[in-house]
Write a structure and sequence with these properties.
four-stranded mixed beta sheet, alpha/beta, 15 strands, 446 residues, binds pyridoxal-5'-phosphate, seven-stranded mixed beta sheet
């Protein structure tokens, strides 16, 4: 019970004693994950670079799991935040009206929603992605007065129990310690070769004897961030929306990882011909790594009673300030989006180059925009490649059911030089590991 309390002092103690990593082993729960893959003590970060206490610098292709689209300590956002703090601006405000929130709402409406012809109500949820998903599921169930939600194979929506029920991964689900209910699992696009997964869903929904209760909503990621970077096609998403309309289900797009510019547009579904009823955003919404999440829904679905869904930390004004600064800096015109698309093309080209060094089908590309990766034959190989990368100065993670996808999620603001350097490391990692594991597999080496 006291663990959290003790942990609040840990940074101070470490700085004073500089005892290596012992304090983490002594004090911190075994639940640690990223810290196991990247076992260093980090002290400084700027842009796409992060530095350890010993002064070793890494290029960061993880970027706070997609929370740092504008880079670490982005100076434009930092300046706005420092000014705000120095002016005595409010930090915590529950759901009070504050000037910082007012600025955010104006900016979000004028730079994001209006130019895209989108009309949505903003719900400030608790500040994590899972909070926004919980709110989305609850409002959908309330609006439709039904329990079930369709979620997809390999979907990841967070680890609080409501969101976890919609998450596919068995390892995470296993942590619940209770039955996870209220979700019907359906196959994502491409889950089975040559299978029309929309036709499959339609067959089940239209058959009174299929055993499927009519769901309230469908919850989908347009690119499955944690599930292995499978990207849905616009055709599939449009067909999914049509299915939702036909069977009176709400369409929820979880844009927590794919949104905020990651795929090259602010929302990941732009230009795809869909208009979700509910959208979740978090991760890079504050732009500075500060916790912040919202659930957006069409005004007719705003059926909450006052305070019915609440949370102490819905008023993180520092996050409102940096989010506003990020929108003003990067989304006042389309030049940032264009730059992201160009970098996404560059990443795609580097991926093709690596893949083409091996027999067809041995490695394959996944993802879209600046959310791309390479599928390896298994998770061990992908893990060895990311380990090699870390030794060479690059932080990069894996995703997918078995961790078989090497996933590049670098800041969108990364310089082309760092982007190329990171991919140089990855390229040599692929060749090195694959040559060690499967001699003569590489055509180049053969
Ligand atoms: N939804 C998606 C698509 C995610 O990628 C994540 C986290 O990776 C979440 C929800 C959960 O967000 P959080 O970890 O902030 O609760």
């Amino acid at each position: 019970m006291n663990k959290k309390k003790s942990n609040t002092n840990k940074n101070k103690k470490i700085t004073a004693e500089k005892p290596g990593k012992a304090i983490f082993d002594e004090m911190e729960s075994a639940v640690q994950s990223y810290a196991r893959a990247f076992p260093e003590i980090f002290v400084h970060a700027s842009g796409a670079r992060i530095r350890t206490r010993e002064g070793r610098e890494y290029i960061d292709f993880l970027a706070g799991a997609g929370s740092l689209n504008y880079g670490h300590n982005n100076l434009h956002l930092q300046e706005a935040l420092i000014d705000y703090i120095q002016s005595g601006g409010i930090t915590h405000s529950l759901d009070f009206h504050t000037e910082a929130k007012e600025d955010f709402l104006h900016t979000f409406r004028d730079l994001i929603l209006k130019p895209r012809g989108m009309e949505y109500v903003v719900q400030f949820t608790g500040p994590t992605g899972a909070n926004a998903v919980e709110a989305a599921l609850k409002i959908a169930r309330k609006v439709k007065n039904r329990t079930q939600i369709i979620a997809f194979t390999n979907g990841f929506h967070g680890v609080t129990t409501g969101a976890l029920a919609a998450t596919g991964n068995a390892y995470h689900r296993g942590g619940a310690g209770m039955p996870l209910s209220g979700v019907i699992r359906m196959p994502y696009e491409g889950y089975m070769e040559d299978m029309d997964t929309i036709a499959y869903m339609e067959r089940l929904l239209s058959d009174a004897s299929s055993g499927i209760d009519l769901p309230a909503a469908v919850l989908v990621e347009t690119v499955q961030g944690e599930g292995g970077l499978t990207a849905a096609s616009a055709t599939w998403l449009r067909a999914l929306q049509k299915l939702c309309r036909k069977y009176d289900m709400l369409l929820i797009v979880d844009d927590i990882q794919a949104g905020c510019g990651r795929t090259g547009s602010f929302f990941s579904f732009e230009g795809m011909g869909i208009s979700p009823d509910i959208i979740t955003l978090s991760k890079s919404l504050s732009g500075y790594g500060l916790p912040f999440a919202v659930t957006l829904f069409k005004p007719e679905h705003d059926q909450w009673k006052p305070g019915e869904h609440n949370g102490t930390f819905r008023g993180n004004n520092h996050a409102f300030v940096t989010a506003t600064a990020a929108l003003r800096r990067y989304w006042h015109n389309d030049s940032f989006a264009k730059a992201v698309k160009r970098k996404g093309d560059l990443v795609a080209a580097r991926i093709s180059e690596i893949i083409s060094a091996y027999p067809e089908g041995f490695l394959s590309p996944r993802g879209r925009g600046m959310m791309r990766g390479i599928v390896c034959p298994n998770g061990d190989i992908a893990g060895d490649i990311t380990k090699y990368a870390f030794e060479k100065g690059l932080i990069v993670e894996t995703s997918g059911a078995d961790g078989e996808v090497v996933k590049c999620l670098c800041p969108l603001t990364i310089s082309e030089e760092d982007l190329q350097k990171g991919w140089d490391i990855l390229e040599s990692g692929f060749h090195q590991i694959l040559e060690e594991q499967i001699p003569n597999r590489s055509q180049k080496a053969a």
